[in-house]
Amino acid sequence: FDVESAELGRFYRTYAEAATKVYGPPRPVAAQRRPGRLRIGYLSGDVRDQVMGKMIHVWLEHHDRERFEVFLYGTRLGSDAWAERIRDAAEHFVPVAMLDDAAAIERIAADDLDLLIDCSTHTRGARQGILAAKPARVQITSIASAGCLGMNTIDFKLTDALADLPQMQEHQVEPLLAMAGCVYPYRELPAPSGASLRRADLGIADEAVVIGAFVNLLKLGRRCLTLWREILERVPQALIALSPTHAGQREAYQRVFQAAGIDSRRLVFIPQGRNEAQNQARYGVVDLVLDPLPFGGANGTIEALSMGVPVVTLCGRRHGERVGTSILSHLGVTGTIAHSGPEYVDIACRLVRDGDFREDLQRAIRAGLARSELTDVARHVRNLEAAYETALRLKWPELRVEPPREST
Known about the structure:
Elements: H1 5-23, E1 38-44, H2 51-62, E2 68-74, H3 81-89, E3 92-95, H4 101-109, E4 115-118, H5 128-133, E5 138-141, E6 156-160, E7 176-179, E8 209-212, H6 222-234, E9 238-242, H7 250-259, E10 267-269, H8 276-280, E11 288-290, H9 298-306, E12 311-314, H10 323-331, E13 337-338, H11 341-353, H12 355-371, H13 377-395
Parallel strand pairs: 1-2, 1-4, 2-3, 4-5, 5-6, 6-7, 8-9, 8-11, 9-10, 11-12, 12-13
């Protein structure tokens, strides 16, 4: 919702108070730990073909197993090819979907975790009852959603130096834990596949400039659509390309845009593919992408950039309004980061009108993908591990992580 940060902060604090009353106090955690590597657990309802699950897979694949013992706790039933890949990447996979909170808490606590990373926040599969009991020494909420979780038993919210402003801490419950680099892991996306999409087949005129907006309808608030209408009014050759999850949603998109004063003739619909490779082909049809606001599309931004497509983002004050800024800044391509509504409109209009500007940005994006820290996944995970160790030192300064004793 596009509401003031102070109001969101009140919601978070109200939820934190309610959670404490509903779930009760956390369980005591043993100050003495079992010898061995630092133990990290990931708690997720997205051990499947889903964006968050694929980001977890990046972390699992690149953790330093000589220093870290890694657990994955799955909170939902079901399986697919990606679920198998994610489970196989974990050193220990523990399904807790069939366990009630009390049993799941005991099972997780038995692993003597140093850190438990919440990867669901309030999305499907979230288990706040587990987090309320705090079955690990330190609990961190990760990047599953744009806000904080709002629980007093969460010690930190993972972020980076750009994705959250320090002065916005007063509107959140969990203290910010800023890792080095970008908080969002870059992941290699498949090359476009399937039948190639052609503009002519989509009814797009040769002279049209296509603006991609492959976003959920829920992200399209009044402020966002007002800016998009201004862009279309200033550049009549532009069209906005949408890609609803189901063809039956087209009418809903048309109604929302028409209510914002945008003629449905300025919209073009691109069918979603059956897999990521087919969906990547959509970016071959568009000339630029508009990041929605106030909740930017982190995964959508990375998808577009991986295809060399410029992304225009409006940098705001909350995490959801700063994700695009973090990604683009760590890529080293900052020319499409706006700091006001008028600048957002101006940048988008220039991209529509100026083909040379678009080509310059495309070259800069491809150069950034080849050499920037954003795409250095191993470095990202080292930075993540360093943040985890910082969190543990801050909360348990006397704790000693000792190597396991060799058997004689």
